[in-house]
Amino acid sequence: MLLFSLSAHAGGFQSGPQSARTLGLGGASVAYVRDLAILYYNPAGLAQLDSLTHISVGHLANVRRTSFLGTDSRRLVDQKFQPLPGGYFYATKALTDKVAVGLSINTPYGYDTRWPGDWEGRSIVQQARLNTVFVQPTAALRLSENFSVGAGAVYALGRMSQQYALGEYDDRDVSAQYSGSGSGFGFNVGMYGKTGENLSFGVSYRSPVTLKVKNGTAAYNNVPAIDARKYPARTSLRTDLKLPGALSVGMADNITKKLLLTFDFTLTGWSRFDSLTFDTGDAPRLATRTVGGRYEDAMAFRVGSEYAYSDKLTFRAGVSYDETPIRDEYISPNLPDGNKPGVSAGLSIRLGEDMTADLAYQFEYVAERTSRVVQARVGVNNVGGTYQTQVHTAALGLSYSF
Questions:
Q1: For FRET with 67, which of 95, 99, 203, 394 sits at 20 to 30 Å CA-CA?
Q2: Which option is the CATH number for 20-401: 2.40.160.60, 3.40.50.1220, 2.40.50.140, 2.130.10.10?
Q3: pTM for the whole thing?
Q4: Where is this protein primarily located (predicted)?
Q5: Cα angle at 22 between 19 and 28, to 5 degrees?
């Protein structure tokens, strides 16, 4: 529970599958009730668990490697190597045969971008970071043997920071640094059903959440004394970070007694994010600054498989395709996202009657993106060049029942 941070992959700045088992399945888990991450993906599945108390905790590690080749400079630079830790915690308890409750804590959104301090886009971004933690108490009701509904209340916390060089100075150490934290509320609802012994389906909706940063700080570093009035050493900062909602549908089919197939489709409402505007009203030269621009709603497709090799060993594999919400003309070095096909693999090892260890790995290749600077496009912060990204994610988890 103490390992929460962020990862930076999947469409936009989602942090990807929220457990080791779902990572092994490529994220296809809306109708998958063999993992406590169902609390996050479809709260109705909580009512389908047995009467035991279940706890699941895990650690995620993510490495995102992005390179940039400047159109005019022909200079190749790489983002700084920065493994990103993350984690999750789930707990469930059946109160009666029909009612169950649970708690999930995870990090569904985040990014960490670190470019060299002297790269050609330094006046746009040198470093940018977002951490989020979602806390979701959940309840589910089994309406019949084959159908259940569930809902959870979401309390979200987030912390952001961004640093960029002030482009009017030759000294790259003359920079602005924004930081702040905020919180917001949302909800998560879903339904789960079975049409027989082998086929199940699920539908879930996670609402948008707005993190309101009210007491942030904007600091201007190493500014020449002659310009101190234009750039005060420290001033207030406010912004609203609008995180998207998501509608997901999924199916799970027991092809044989040992083989299970899962499929998910998700539509994420990235269009509400659009851009991030920082209000630094006390700084006369920079009353506002806008980062990014015009996100669009995006789709994702995920297929997973699970094979029970024995009572002690289970294998998983998955494929996924995440559509980017960012159009070519709005690519930003803050997060140079692209369409991402991915493959994953995982396994579970039963350590005893009550404990299971889960391991998984996922590789995603981000389609090459070329950014072009259009002088007439006011408010779009980018630099001309080509981005290429690969993402590696590994996870380790433990599940315990009593």
A1: 394
A2: 2.40.160.60
A3: 0.88
A4: membrane
A5: 145
